[in-house]
Each structure stands twice: as C-alpha cells, then as structure tokens.
Amino acid sequence: xxxxxxxxxxxxxxxxxxxxxxxxxxxxxxxxxxxxxxxxxxxxxxxxxxxxxxxxxxxxxxxxxxxxxxxxxxxxxxxxxxxxxxxxxxxxxxxxxxxxxxxxxxxxxxxxxxxxxxxxxxxxxxxxxxxxxxxxxxxxxxxxxxxxxxxxxxxxxxxxxxxxxxxxxxx
Amino acid sequence: xxxxxxxxxxxxxxxxxxxxxxxxxxxxxxxxxxxxxxxxxxxxxxxxxxxxxxxxxxxxxxxxxxxxxxxxxxxxxxxxxxxxxxxxxxxxxxxxxxxxxxxxxxxxxxxxxxxxxxxxxxxxxxxxxxxxxxxxxxxxxxxxxxxxxxxxxxxxxxxxxxxxxxxxxxxxxxxxxxxxxxxxxxxxxxxxxxxxxxxxxxxxxxxxxxxxxxxxxxxxxxxxxxxxxxxxxxxxxxxxxxxxxxxxxxxxxxxxxxxxxxxxxxxxxxxxxxxxxxxxxxx
Lengths: 171, 283
What we know:
Helix content of chain B: 10-25%
Mean pLDDT of chain B: 74
CATH class of one domain in chain B: Mainly Beta
Oligomer: heterodimer
Shape of chain B: elongated
CATH topology of one domain in chain B: Pdz3 Domain
Low-confidence stretches of chain A: none
Structural class of chain B: alpha+beta
Number of strands of chain A: 10
Number of strands of chain B: 15
C-alpha cells in the first residue's frame, strides 16, 4: 500500500512539475514559428505566463502581412488531461464584413482526454452563438448555427439540414 | 523532531526533489535544443509616401500657343459645364443622341455637336462626355423627376435614381476618351464593397523571389469585365499603384482599402520586357 502511495505521489508531482515547469512562452514562440511558415503572424503587446496558463494580450493577427483581426485576450489553459483555449473580443477587419461576422465576443475551444478525438467549440458574437466540434479522428469540423440569427453574411458558406444551418469542412 | 527527520520521510522528499529536478532538466533540454527564445513579430510598415502622385491628369501636355489664344476667346463666349443639364440619352452602336437643358432651353445634340463651348464626345448609360480644348468633362444624367417632362421617341426620359442594389454586377463604366480612360466612381465603390467580385473578375498571383515578394501578376481577366476595359492583360505584372510600390500584400490591401478615396489611378505594369504606365481618371 505504501508503495502504491509513493508511486501515486511521484506521478502527481511529475504531472504538476510537467505543467508548472513547462516553458509555455517558448512553446508559444515555437507555435508562432510554425504559423509563420503559413504566413500567419501574431503580434501581441504582452505575454503573461501562469502556473497552468499562458495569456496573450492585445493580439493582432496578420495573414500575409495584412492585419485581419485584433483580439483583446487569448488564454491557453492546460492540465494536460484537460485543455482550453479561450478568446475574448475578436474583431475582424472591416474589409471582411461581407464574408464573415466581424465581432466575436467570446470563444472557447476545449479538449479532454475523456473524449480524446473530439474538440468542442463554443462561440458567441454578432452572429449570436454557435456550437461545434472538431473530430480529430475523421479530420472534420462541424459548426452548428442553430441558435444564430444574424448569419446572412455567412449563409453562402453554410449548409442546411433538419437541425438548421451548419458549416462543415475537413482538414 | 525525531519524527520530522525520519529517514523514510527524508528519502521520500529526496525522491520528489529528484523527480522535480528531472522534469525541470528535461524541459530545459527541450527548450535549449528545440524551442526558440523569441517569437515571430510582424514589423508594421510605416505608411510610405508614394514616389509621386498625379493630382490632375489633364491636360498632360501644354496646348500650343495658337490654341491658347483661341481658348481665351472661347472662355469669354462659353460658360460652365455646370450650366448643362443632361436630361436623356439615346445610345446606339452607330449614333449617340442626348437631350440637354441649357439656359432653360432644351436641346437635342448628337455626337460632335457643340453647346456652351463644349462638344459632345460620347455617352454612357447614365452620363455624357463633353470635350473642351484638351479637357474632358463628364455630365451625369439628371436624376430628379421633372414635372411635365415628356418622353418622345427613343430618347430616354429623365431616369430614376441609380439603384443602390447589392447585386453582384458592377455598376458604372469605363470610358475611353482617347489619351486616357475615365473610371466611374460607382465602379470603384462597388469593388470596394464587394471584394468577392474582384476575385470573380480578376485573378492575381504573387511573384516571389525566395521569400521576397516582387509583385503581383494577373493570372486571368474575365472577358468584358471592367478590369479588361482598363487595358490590363493576362500575364501583366503590377509593380506600383499611384506611385506606391506593391511589394507586400499589405501594400496591395492598403490601396484596395482606400480605393474609394482615390482621385486618379496610375498603374505601372510590366508586360513582357516592356514597362508601361496606365493612367485613369476617376470621376
């Protein structure tokens, strides 16, 4: 019993140490490097590293050098078995208003080991609300706009079934 | 005290400290070997001033002295273009007839006829082009409904206001007046509002030299589209717009975003080995 206790303690400490000692900022820089190869650059005014999280403030998103969006706050939180990416106040450039809703108040992307191949998406914005999921098994994305009302600009990219309007793509 | 420093407890603490140290060491090695120490930041370009900006397109050439004398005489006789009100247009392939009001009198003019010192040159669907000396003047169709106006024959009656529909068909025309072309501002407004229509009418491909962007080449132009009327051709490389070098997506997008506010448009393109400058007036 004592042995089991010790093993559990070591596992718990290891798990805590992995998260706490994780070089979150450096990992974020690595992600920036990867995005840069796709000509996507994130410019942030400050980065805040917490024990379990990394927060970016005032992020400007550049795609091929064009500033397409600004985000008030992006927060990445992880416990390894549960991770969440939350985005607050995303404003798209006005030039995209004909194609996409320009304001996203809050969005959350969550992943849990309980459903390892499924990433849940939830967002609220000028389109009201959307729910969706990313299936890592089939590499597909489905976003449901069932509760949404102001989706006129998006309708050209949406499909409709008995549940309502939805967006579907694969990667 | 004896309990606190028991050997077993110390052993456990040592074990935990070693675990912490190992994890820290692993992360340190990963960070040292594979992770960058700084992020990728986009250097925001400060607004560059164009090399030059043509404010007035016409007259490009100074008129010969003789004509200048004539011009002075004409000025005394003729009035302003604003005195001419365009009431109706009949535009066929072989003839152009318009109805104008000048000094409260209605007159019918055909191509080449003169009124108030201005000669009728051409007409579009909702405007007429007059010339005087080397200058061109565009008069838009009078849109206010007039009382007791009668429509006769094929001459159009004063048209209803231009509909601000969200149609995908661009409104406005490009008129060739000889030495340059005139772009209807509504056309620019339309493309400024409907970016998806730009992609339908013209395909633009970037030209890169390694990582550096050299310019944008035209991969296709829809036949009969306003872009084709501008004189652009497939394979042309656009190197500058209104004196600003187009060497980044941001530069190109910046011009697109401000397209509604431009007064004139000047494109420097490379067609084969030849470099050309295309000039347009926005009216």
